[in-house]
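FIELD: query
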Amino acid sequence: MVKFGSNLQVWTSHLSDETIKLFSQVKEMGFEGVEIPMAHAMRVDESLIERARKELDRLGLKCTTCGGLGRADNLIDDDEEKRKRGMTMLRKFVDISSGLGANTMVGPHYGTFGMADVGRARTQEEWNRAVILLREIADYAGDKGVNIGLECLNRYETYFLNIAEDAVKLVQEIGKDNIGVHLDTYHMNIDEKNFYNPIKITGCHLFLLHCSENDRGIPGTGHVNWDEVFQALKDIDYHGWLVIESFFEPMEDIPVATSVWRQIAPSREAIMSEGITFLKEKAKEYGLY
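FIELD: result
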């Protein structure tokens, strides 16, 4: 059976005591887990992590985490100091994830959001840096029981990793069992030819799928081909997380990457409650839930 998670970025970009108050609301909607965003990760202390973990345990919720790097801590940058800061940030992501009891953290952990403006394709040197440094992070994460899903973003958000085929190549070259691929139907809608093949070729390397409509609105109300999505998930015998990710308004931390300039749904709650109803029906139709 697949598991359903709610990405809390529709409400907030980071973990706080206000974020913890959202857990019970998500539970009542029928989600098995929450995906906790990790903006401002260096400000997160052990006591906050403990409070969040305690509330998750009380509610019987599981969690995953999501995060990304900035221009000052880009893992593939030419500047060695930026790469070092990127490694420090990724270790912090792992520590937070482990403390929360999250066995999976996802995101474009190879570089930073908003990297498409360099005006060129990735270089072999950047690829090699990603392989070497992510292999090192995989060892650190493995010791703490954390898996890492590397996300493909669309061409307007990064030049480094846009399609599942390349993500699988990167994961295979890294060669660590706890490094896999994180796909997102929103990004797939832009850069993939269809929704079936990317999931099928990712296969056992798929660690988590973000379920997002083409306009970031309520899943099932746009033109994402959900039948292709669920047929592919069935064909690879997927039993992992299906996480609804949406943005109700521009996020303060990454406004351009989210690019939500108008109201795309009646409310944040509608995105999640109506979205999970639709996705559960689809999952049941294909024998996945």
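FIELD: remark
The two ends are 5 Å apart (CA to CA).
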